[in-house]
Amino acid sequence: MSELAEELRRELDRYSPGGKLPSSRALVERFRVSPVTVSRALAQLSAEGLVITRPGAGAFRARPRATETAAGDTSWQEVALSADGAAELVPRTVDASGVTVSLAAPPPGVLEFNGGYLHPSLQPERAMAAALARAGRRPGAWGRPPLEGLPELREWFARGIGGAVTAAEVLIAAGGQAALATALRALAQPGAPVLVESPTYPGMLALARAAGLRPAPVPVDAEGVRPDLLADAFRASGARVFVCQPLFQNPTGAVLAPARRAEVLRIAREAGAFVVEDDFVRRLVHADAGPLPRPLAADDPDGVVVHVGSLTKATSPSFRVSALAARGPVLERLRAIQVVDSFFVPRPLQEAALELVGAPAWPRHLRTIAGELQARRTAMTSALALHLPELALPHVPSGGYHLWLRLPDGADESALAAAALRAGVALTPGRPYFSAEPPAAHVRLSFAAVAGTGEITEGVRRLRAACDEVL
């Protein structure tokens, strides 16, 4: 579609403003594409204001826009926004750079080792489309849903968490990022410290800082967060919140060791603190992984854990359906903040989620991506061992979609990222994953956002050229 839109864009100068373009049938025959492709290309040009489509009449070149008025003066906002944080202990600065690096599409021809979602070929597009179509025909699908979410969807998430968690303790949210934002706002006041794993997900650090919180790092090793250092951090900081990813942690891929699970909950309980469990990739387990540990929330009768789980990573970045689970008075606070912020998750999307996870295609999809992710991980680790042995890989995860690599001492990860982009591969520098000074330079490489193992092998070859340039 993009190629056809570009070709039509170049040909617009042949037509005077208001002039009629060739018919859709003529474009289909000329470019040997489907009617759907022609329709989408014209819709793209219409969205850009270059053409006007009139049902039954055809497509016409748009007339030039009238000269736009002079831009307004928004410089006053610099004073207003800085004054807003003058009285706060921690100004609510918002830095989205650590998030946008995994959301922005790379330039054409650049391989995407920095992506945070499944490649379209791995997404269940047909199953999602069918689920959306069926959802739209459900009785009441376009009405207002319960504020907490559809009961059947809450029950499905509760069963997935396990233990004694019930549907009454689950809220449906609009994706994991929104659920984390709600949890942080509910559990900590502006200016308060919040304990975070180090390294950790940059999007969570951005959320915390935007809420005026002070992230305090707790180191992670191959077995997850270290309980001794977690206890020290609670005592030193007085924090009442700890955010963690016990399963396939981002970026290290670590899984919290069985012996540490109860210890983490005990330490938090004794500190009078909550644990926010970001269970973001439970459905991206690899085919060679053993049995997964239950979520921390399943072993927590005391309401210490606020659990966040999502469908997004296993489906599509636009399928933003997640769950918040909590026990006790905090549940009402979470509910109130979510209602004030966004009212509710649109009912058609909730109905589509129910249709998707209840369809026979859903378990087949999970089995497919389990095998694909294992194959991609193996391809990347093998290529790295062959072409880049100087990059240390301390842990090979059996779930998730990325690898965490330590660079040689003295290496400049920003320079490497720039050289890699010039060589045709986009990667993620490690610095945004640390809330304080990092102990060494790192990069994160994703193997899920590319088209297949061939692109992984080629991407590592290009990375070798970048390393030769700067290391």
Structure characteristics:
15 strands, globular, 16 helices, 471 residues, alpha/beta, eight-stranded mixed β-sheet, Aspartate Aminotransferase, domain 2, Arc Repressor Mutant, subunit A, three-stranded antiparallel β-sheet, Aspartate Aminotransferase, domain 1
State mean pLDDT (0 to 100 scale): 90
Specify the CATH homologous superfamily of the largest domain: Type I PLP-dependent aspartate aminotransferase-like (Major domain)
* Beta-strand segment tally: 15
Low-confidence stretches: none
Instruction: Count up the helices.
Output: 16
Q: Specify the overall morphology.
A: globular
Named at the architecture level, the CATH assignment of the largest domain is: 3-Layer(aba) Sandwich
Give an overview in words.
By secondary structure, the chain is α/β, with parallel strands linked by helices. The chain folds into three domains: 2-61, Winged helix-like DNA-binding domain superfamily/Winged helix DNA-binding domain (Arc Repressor Mutant, subunit A, Orthogonal Bundle), CATH 1.10.10.10; 97-122 and 363-470, Aspartate Aminotransferase, domain 1, CATH 3.90.1150; 126-357, Type I PLP-dependent aspartate aminotransferase-like (Major domain) (Aspartate Aminotransferase, domain 2, 3-Layer(aba) Sandwich). Helices cover 41% and strands 14% of the residues. It is built from 16 helices and 15 strands. The strands form four sheets. It has an eight-stranded mixed beta sheet with strand order 4-11-10-9-8-5-6-7, sandwiched between helices. Strands 12-15-14 form a three-stranded antiparallel beta sheet, covered by helices on one side. The longest helix is centred in the last third of the chain and has 27 residues, at 361-387. It is globular. It starts with a helix and ends with a helix. The mean pLDDT is 90.
